[in-house]
Design a protein that fits this description.
Blueprint: H1 3-26, H2 32-53
Helix pairs in contact: 1-2
Length: about 55
């Protein structure tokens, strides 16, 4: 897999996590720890995308 294809895949995962975080934040009774974990995963993906893109 080329670097550009890997970056595209990471961006898709990042977008999916964005949607998942938004849905979790709207859901009543959603565990704050689980939301925090999703946000950390999203941040790691963003950092990896930036690292590979530079």
């Amino acid at each position: 897999m080329s670097v550009s294809a890997h970056v595209i895949e990471l961006k898709k995962k990042h977008e999916n996590l964005s949607v998942e975080v938004e849905q979790a934040e709207r859901a009543p009774g959603m565990d704050a720890l689980q939301i925090s974990t999703l946000k950390k995963q999203k941040l790691r993906l963003k950092e990896e995308i930036e690292r590979l893109s530079s």
